[in-house]
């Protein structure tokens, strides 16, 4: 990945910032821009000359920054430890307390290249700096850059605060997912509860039916007993002629029959009592199950309500910025301090100037627009405005003119950088050859003078041909510093150096000419596009004018053609 470089002024000092070609997270870019604006790190001269920096360039620059801060932290910790040992009133626990920057340097340096693809951030909703600590944040700490956000909950929202509390974003997501699961569980529990209630009703109905049948049987038996007694008495009175033996035998048989009927009644009553006891136990067990199901439904409903509150908060603040969060950012960020700002899985560079928050505009589309540098952060709905490097609203342009130069893909600039650097190094090597010419006029140097001159001429021809054909990797290996240059005569040697110098200048002029031609071509294409847009507008205006000329009720040609004349 490559980043184009833009030159701006910040706090009356020239600064270089990196622009982003593809819209994405890229915390690496945000951290680098924050440190570049502070002036604590600088891009290499090679990157500045070519106007582009690769990911390796940025990682190496930040790695040097991390190494320096780690060394400073180690020296500070050593001095503090020495001071604590000399003092008698120091606490041993404070002496052994690790510094905030004492991290495993190799681990942090291995994290830096991965930051170009983004990083996981788990914010909490209590303050701008409340973020769950991870290994990625260790890299920010070691670089000396603070990560902040504006997704802060208003403490006046008591209902939401009671649910959110100190939870992080991931914990709220788990709460919402758990609420969905509890909602499905409540449906199952309610169905189960209905089944148990129906079972209980059937058991009660069966018990009542059995009791009713038992009562009916008792009444029937009592009536039968009374009828039997009446029948026996009438028989005893009417059969006076029967002998005593038969009468006694009859009475004995009837007594046995009555005893037998009493035993059957006792057995039936006992079985009914056992049956009633079993039914009562079953009824109590089912009632207890229904009560337990009700408690589970109540507990799940409470979790569902909490999940609904959390989901409502996440939905209403889906832009991940609140007005209370803006207030907290104003209070937390100092004047002209620079931090990394996290919002919507995007990382930007934020500062405060004259009490107003600004975000650094790093879109590649503003590469050739010097009047757009900062974006105001004073609204949560994206309704904002852009300002220049002096935090002033730019005046509108007098005319819609093409940009100062074409916006070239940073990857293409990075590919062209090797060719430009080779040309630059060749020119510098030829210039250094003036001071590295040996004063001795050895025979060996005299014999090799023609050979070295031929090599340089062939190298120049080859480079010129490659540049003419547009090859990007046009590199020529010319060992000028180690090659013996003849010095048979000062005039001949000076003329040779002049030819080298002229050759280098010719290469430089040719490259500038090619760049100039590419810029002119880009401007011509932009002019053609503007002319085409203007012609389209003119055609649209003519069509609108023709339509307005047609009066209401006035028949058009098509209408006239469709009329029937009688």
Number of strands: 9
**Helix-strand string:** EEHHEHHHHEHHHHEEEEEHHHH
The helix content is 55-70%
Q: State the helix count.
A: 14
What's the Cα radius of gyration? 48 Å
Beta-strand residue fraction: 5-15%
Main sheet properties: 6 strands, mixed
Strand arrangement, major sheet = 4-5-6-7-8-9
Which outline best applies?
elongated
* Residue-averaged pLDDT: 74
Runs in which pLDDT lies below 50 for 5 or more consecutive residues are 87-101, 250-260, 434-447, 471-490, 554-566
Which structural class do the helices and strands define?
alpha+beta
Q: Gap between N and C termini, in Å?
A: 78 Å
Give a written overview of the molecule.
- This protein has 566 residues and is of the alpha+beta class.
- Helix content is 61%, strand content 8%.
- The protein is built from 14 helices and 9 strands.
- The strands form 2 sheets. Strands 4-5-6-7-8-9 form a 6-stranded mixed sheet, with helices on both faces. A 3-stranded antiparallel sheet has the order 2-1-3.
- The protein is elongated and about 135 Å long.
Question: TL;DR?
Answer:
By secondary structure, the protein is an alpha+beta fold. It is built from 14 helices and nine strands.
Task: Describe the protein's topology.
Layout: E1 2-10, E2 13-18, H1 27-38, H2 45-50, E3 52-54, H3 55-86, H4 92-95, H5 105-111, H6 135-143, E4 147-149, H7 158-164, H8 169-238, H9 244-316, H10 323-332, E5 338-343, E6 346-353, E7 356-360, E8 374-376, E9 386-387, H11 410-432, H12 443-468, H13 490-549, H14 557-562
Parallel strand pairs: 4-5
Antiparallel strand pairs: 1-2, 1-3, 5-6, 6-7, 7-8, 8-9
Helix pairs in contact: 7-9, 8-9, 11-13, 12-13
